[in-house]
Amino acid sequence: MTDGYEVARCDQTVYVRVHGLANMKNTPVLDEFLNRESEPGPLVACIDLGSCRGMDSTFMGTLVGHHHRLGKDGGKVVVVNPSPGNRRLLDMLGVSTVLPVIDGLAEVAAQFVTLEAGKAVTPVARAELMKTAHEHLIKLNDDNRSKFGPFLEALEKDLSRLQTD
Fold it and tell me: The whole model's pTM is what?
């Protein structure tokens, strides 16, 4: 499988296997999926990074946002099986301070399907997702504010420009 996601559902838990890179290009399809799946009530989203070669801040910030949103209904996002490099990224940005991270979880015996992209993501929708994701990261700690503050300012300017075009 190329970069992307496989998903399965069992009761109030969705399992997501990340393949390849998890980044701003493919995060919108995951975001849409998690929004859709959490409609019936409390949801646990188990994000398996065992086959993930790398991830960016948009992906991680989106997970934090879903964790906060799901937590309001008694749900959560759990990250499992990160590689040492991905674990370092989760720790470095403070994501692991709010999301449970579990190493060495056994493979889930479920019927997984490839999560296909829905409608094309507009530049405005992608920029809004990136903005929201980075706002979640900035709220985690002051280091993230200094890392992502200038990026967020530039992104907001781009978003304003895109919305007026």
Answer: 0.93
Q: How far is the C-alpha of 98 from the C-alpha of 5, rounded, in Å? A: 23
Range of the domain at 18: 4-117
128-156 residue pLDDT tens = 999 999 999 999 999 999 999 999 999 99
* Residue 155 falls inside a structural domain: no
CA angle (132, 30, 137) in 5-degree steps: 30
The answer to the question of residue 133 being in a domain is no
Give the list of residues 6+ apart from residue 138 with CB closer than 8 angstroms, or none.
Answer: 144, 145, 148, 149, 152
For residue range 70-102, list pLDDT tens digits in order.
Answer: 999 899 999 999 999 999 999 999 999 999 999
**Amino acid at residue number 89:** L
Q: Is 148 inside a domain boundary?
A: no
Q: Is the pLDDT of residue 40 over 80?
A: no
For the chain, the domain total comes to: 1
